[in-house]
Amino acid sequence: MERALYTHLLDWKDSSRRKPLLLRGARQTGKTFLLREFGEREYERVVYCNFEEDPALDGFFRRDLDPHRILAELSIYKGFDIGPGRDLLVFDEVQASDRALTSLKYFQERAAEYHVAAAGSLLGIKMAGPGSFPVGKVSFLDLHPMSLPEFLRAVGKPRYADLLLELTDPEPLPEAIHADLVDLLRTYCLIGGMPEVVSSYAATGDARLARRIQSEIVESYLLDFVKHAPAADIPKLGLIWDSIPRHLAKENKKFMFSVVRKGARARDYENALRWIRDAGLVRLCHAVSTSRSPLEHYAERSVFKVYALDVGLLGAMTRTPPEISVAGDRLFTEYRGALTENYVAQELAAAGQAALYYWRSTGGRAELDFLAETGRTVVPI
Fold first, then answer.
1. CA 162/CA 159 separation, integer angstroms
2. Which of 84, 130, 198, 253 is 20 to 30 A from 149 via CA?
């Protein structure tokens, strides 16, 4: 499946200022698949090191962080010489080894001729040990769930993907094309952009199977809470996670801790919400009362909405039946338009909007769902 980020990987490979690359993203957004496919297409060989699957790899970084010694010993371990510029060295699940993460600094300073790309979960990287992060010594790319154009290519509609990406003016499309795109958007809001789900649907067309896979992914995230979160926060994480559909189903979608649990206070639950956000599982959309750029200067940090990582996963969390996709426009209006809003939040993030904002009037009597920044221009949505 084609990912838009691939062109950025090519730019990284050919850059004269290339540093080790750190590909970040929530779990199961396709980081491993993308790096391996990139390496297999663009290099002679992929030297793949997964620090969760093979904990022994951490031992190569224990004595010191001399990249040439590490490369020499990895060559022996892998059974072939690792060549500069010829092979792609991939450190996957790099958050499982603080020393390997730190080593990226020394690869940049002492062995820049080698092409090194690391992948890790957003949360794991943020939780890396003190001093382990190679500040200023790596380049970053963030991988999100598949956008609508990426989805269209995956399901055999590349011409429609090209059409959307080439549009420069909001002119009406021919009715037949418009109707097709609405049907495809309806399908996307059901299937979402998690690569495993999209791959299954593209191969089988089975929406029920897609829903089962989505439910498995949601369950795996819940297990991550138990595995990685502070023990005291685990019950709070579950309550916040379960409250997301309830918040988005309200007319006023503002996040309120009292909806999470009766009597809950922000100071008792905000660390748990930050944990879920750092894991990349939700996006916060802050309120502003002005449309001046930069919006971040006018954001109300205590007033925000919370959107799920992926619209398809949100559908699984709300137990929206797959049959709704054939019920006219009901999918777009169900839960007071929650799935539609989540879709827009997801597309904005995939398009590079690092932070999300919505406008509300003083006193909160009127709202615009989103404000997007392009340069110094603020666009209402």
1. 5
2. 253
Other CB atoms within 10 Å distance of the CB of residue 369: 16
* Residue 264 contacts residue 335 (beta carbons within 8 Å): no
Cα separation, 71 vs 77, in Å, equals 10
Query: Mind listing the pLDDT tens digit for each residue in 278-337?
Result: 889 999 999 999 999 999 999 999 999 999 999 999 999 998 888 876 667 888 888 788
Radius of gyration of the chain (CA): 22
Distance spanning both ends of the chain, measured CA to CA: 29
| Helix (H), strand (E) at residue 208 | helix 207-228
Chain segment 137-193, per-residue pLDDT in tens: 899 999 999 999 999 999 999 999 999 999 988 789 999 999 999 999 999 999 999
Q: Are 310 and 350 in contact (CB under 8 A)?
A: no
Cβ neighbours of residue 211 closer than 8 Å, sequence gap 6 or more: 315, 316, 322
pLDDT above 90 coverage of the chain, percent: 79
Nearest to 155 by CA among 208, 192, 121: 192
- In degrees and rounded to multiples of 5, residue 361 shows phi and psi of -70, 160
Paired tokens of 184: 């495809």
Sign of CA dihedral 12, 17, 21, 26: negative
Give the separation between CA 62 and CA 99, rounded to whole angstroms: 7
- CA nearest 66: which of 92, 93, 105? 105
Those residues whose C-beta lies under 8 Å from the C-beta of residue 59, and which sit 6 or more positions away, are none
String of b and e for 329-358 (b: at least 16 CB within 10 Å)?
eebeebbebbbbbbbbbbbbbbeebeebbb
